[in-house]
Amino acid sequence: MSSALRALFRTLKTAGQRVAKPLQRGDGPNKFDLSSVDTATTTYEGDDGWAKRPPATLECPRCGSDILQHNARDSIDCPRCVAEFEYEEFTDLELLHLTCPICGSRMLHGQRHPEQFDIPEWATCNACRYHWEFKHSYVGDR
Ligand SMILES: [Zn+2]
Ligand SMILES: [Zn+2]
C-alpha cells in the first residue's frame, strides 16, 4: 500500500471518529494528527464511488414507510404505496440510514461538503469496520 493511501485511510478513520464524538469548538478540519500510525495494522475493507454505495433506506414521502434502495442505480419503489421514484430523485427523499453490505448493520453516514452535495459522502460500519467513501478527491482540498 502506498503511503498516500495509508494517509488517506488515516484521514478517513480520524474523520469518522470526529463525527462520532460530540462537536467540539475549535477542532478544525486541519488538525488531523498525521503522525499517528495506529491504523497500520487495522484490517480495512471498503469501497468508494457512488456506484458501489451501500444499500440505502429512504423514507417514503407519501406514507412514511421505509424504502430499501439496494443499489444506487435501482429505482426507488415504496413497498406499501404507489410512490415510485427514479434513482436521480434520491436527494429529494429523506435518507434514514445506509446498511453495511458486509454484515448488515446500520452504518454511520455523513457529509464532507454539505454545501456542495446533497448526498452522503461517507459511511462507516462500527460493527465490522467496512467503510464506504463517495470519492477520494476531497483529500486534495485540505
Ligand atoms: Zn409509500
Ligand atoms: Zn459491517
UniProtKB/TrEMBL annotation:
Q: Which domain of life is it from?
A: Archaea
Q: What is this protein called?
A: Uncharacterized protein
* Species whose genome carries this gene: Halobaculum gomorrense
